[in-house]
Amino acid sequence: MSSDQPGPDDFTVEPRTMRFQGVPAQEPEHAEAPDTRGLSPEDQATIEALRPGTALLIVLRGPNTGARFLLDDTEVSAGRHPDSDIFLDDVTVSRKHALFAATPDGYVVRDFGSLNGTYVNRERIDEIALHTGDEVQIGKFRLVYYAA
């Protein structure tokens, strides 16, 4: 901004105004291997052994920390209902909370109109394509997605 008026990226502390200008994010030039730091050797081996077209969710935080869920079907349901493919037993999870659906490019996650919402990388979503390393939050559960 060239005017003397403070803009949305300005911060005023009387009697001075500081102007912050960000640097645009740059896309990586090549795909990187998934970040497996902090994973057990068993989890790392499981991720490396995934068949093409499958994916793995590992519970990072929540009542079942460390639990693993294999995505290997065209549709995988998640919720508090005992018939869910991914049973997440906590009151913060709706009975039919979310659906993981296979696409030619991987999996998408779709919220089923749950009370508390479904989040990917801390943003509430209706539906979004997943990428390795994405964090999916369903209620108190935070799961990290790893594609084959």
TrEMBL record:
For this UniProt record, the keywords arranged alphabetically read as follows: Phosphoprotein
| Chain segments carrying region Disordered | 1-41
Q: Name one Pfam family in it.
A: FHA
Please name the PROSITE patterns in this protein's record. Answer: FHA_DOMAIN
The source's superkingdom equals Bacteria
InterPro entries from the UniProt entry: Cell_Proc_Reg/RNA_Proc, FHA_dom, SMAD_FHA_dom_sf
Which parts of the sequence belong to the FHA domain? 76-125
State the name under which the record lists this protein. Signal peptide protein
